[in-house]
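Second opinion, please. Pick holes in both lines of this record:
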Amino acid sequence: MGPLKGKTIALTAERRAEEFATLLERRGAETIHVPAIHVLPLLDDSVLQEKTAGIIDEPPELVVISTGVGFRGWLDAAEGWGNRTELLAALGASRIIARGPKARGAIRGSGLREVWSPATEASQEVADHLEAEGIVGVDVAVQLHGTITEWEPTIHLAQSLARLGADVREIPVYRWIRPSDQQPLIDLLARILDHEVDAVTFTSAPAVASLLSTAKDNGLLDEFLEALRGPVAAICVGPVTSAPLDALGVPTRMPERARLGSLAKFVVDELGE
């Protein structure tokens, strides 16, 4: 039984989806898991290794950590190269900014501490803060957070800081790609258009962008957006994730805290009987 009995909820996350599904199924929901994106490590790890060596040799004045998964992946790669301790020491000698709560958690989990983090988790707020602080000529390392797509109304933070006069070092830890097999996403779209799904959950803006792109590629974009404006709820982990849908006039819902557990509880509260 449970408060979500009779509800069908689509999960588009790649990471921690099994955990998320379990939280919802324990409340009676049926879940459909169709990852909308795939996170790839750098195809050429030597690029990241070279960038890491540069950070260790000459720690930057400022480091911007964009994502928790990216930061942890960076430290794991350094562990494999045998210089994790040196990397942490170099980062500890720099001022660190976390772009959001997940990045902040990863930073603190490594034993480091950030000096500032935006309230909105938005790249624009980070740029605005640093512009007000004064960033001309400052040596800044920016951990990149994947590929920006047409659907993501966000700025490329590294480029923005460079335009503000900073000396920027880009740290490309991973990138997003759309699934090579699009059929599962097309099948999910069909179920959404037929209103067989009560809610679609998103934990990243690239996942939203991927599903929008699949809908557009198959001539289903207008119908997809109409479904999300009607009987199918679009539930996002936070405002950065919801931004592509917000820009298209789709009503979105989200918990107060951008955490997976908070998202699961929010789904129960919103859809529960």
The two ends are 11 Å apart (CA to CA). The mean pLDDT is 92.
